[in-house]
Design brief:
By secondary structure, the chain is of the alpha+beta class. The protein is 18% helix and 34% strand.
Length: 155
């Protein structure tokens, strides 16, 4: 005996009950994964994996002090006039950098820190009396790698 089996095509697209849940879960997982690793990529690129030896230039001009930072050094013009000084940190490096100042008393100057991600800049003003100041990057390992210099403020 020969038996023929015929079936009619479905009139609408149907998936077994758990299949819609599986598709939704997969899409949700992919979205969360993409967002999490996208954010982590931004965070992890802020800090160096190794210490190099490029230089940075800090230029004193009529408008203030401009610090161009790369990995891992500062160099400064020898002096700048006393008074209200506009300081700009321009991060031309590949990692996050900041700039802090040690004052005439040997302590960090409270409330002053400039921070810049790669390709960004930050500007702040600070009153400086005549004397010698230490400028440095306080990101862990950066000062030890050479990101420290002096600025002489003249009266």
């Amino acid at each position: 005996m020969v038996s023929a089996r015929t079936s009619t095509p479905p009139t609408e697209f149907e998936l077994p009950g758990g299949a819609w849940f599986a598709i939704g879960a997969t899409i949700s997982f992919a979205l969360v994964f993409w967002l999490a690793f996208g954010v982590m990529a931004d965070i992890t690129t802020d800090y160096p994996a190794s210490v190099g030896g490029d230089s940075a230039a800090v230029v004193a001009d009529a408008s203030g002090v401009r610090a161009a930072a790369t990995e891992f050094a500062f160099s400064l013009e020898p002096s700048h006039p006393a008074g209200l000084v506009s300081m700009t940190l321009v991060n031309e490096g590949q990692t996050f950098h900041n700039l802090e100042i040690i004052g005439l008393d040997g302590e960090k100057m409270p409330g002053f820190i400039l921070e810049a991600d790669p390709g960004r800049e930050a500007t702040g003003e600070i009153e400086l009396a005549p004397g010698t100041y230490t400028l440095f990057c306080s990101v862990p390992g950066h000062r030890e790698a050479g990101m420290e210099s002096t600025l002489t403020v003249t009266g």
